[in-house]
Task: structure prediction
Amino acid sequence: MRCQGCTCVLASVLTSELEKLGLTFQSCRYHAKTILFEQGAHVDGGYIVCEGLIKQSLLVDSRRLLWRFVGSGQLIVEDVLSGCKVYRTQAEVLEDSQVLHIPRQSFLTLCSRFPHILEPVLRGLAGESFDVLTRLTAAAYSGMKEQLAALLWLLQERFGRDSAEGRVIALELSLQELAEMLGVSRQAASEAFHALEARGLVHRWGRWLLIPKLEGLRAQAGQFLG
Result:
């Protein structure tokens, strides 16, 4: 029913209790580049990422915008909770992942029977909403370098790891994906990235990004981080 050692919201619920309610979940292994669901497809349930990484994006006026990354222990349930009939985003598997599918009614029953599991779900959605608001505010009132600095700050808060050289963003991010998150062209994102790189605020660190000095990045982002 679920993965061994999983730390998602189901970890606090005994398997026997789930079986008593007749709740059935399907755990599957997905390879990188697999589309978990398409934007506009019928919502048949939510997903828990037990292990791996998922990218959610949406198509707006023929331009693809990257909304968020979903890592181990996180959920994709916003369309289930809001009662949407179709998925408002596309979900793509970025690395080999173990994902648990929960039918819509099973998830709603689960929340009704075990309301405590909603706390981390709602807290996570609230944090992601603030991230989006920060990105939109930066886009409306700042230059491209400030927008990128604010985005990198948010990413290091969610996916950062400390190292001897600085703070590492443990995501394989291409310039195209940064552009999609900013809602700009690849060229604009490239110019902003190289400008920050020239100031020593960000560097390529193998497959990941390295921020040598957080205070410098925060100063570049300015007022948009509160």
Remarks:
- The first helix runs from residue 15 to 20.
- The domain at 9-117 is CATH 2.60.120.10 (Jelly Rolls).
- The two ends are 42 Å apart (CA to CA).
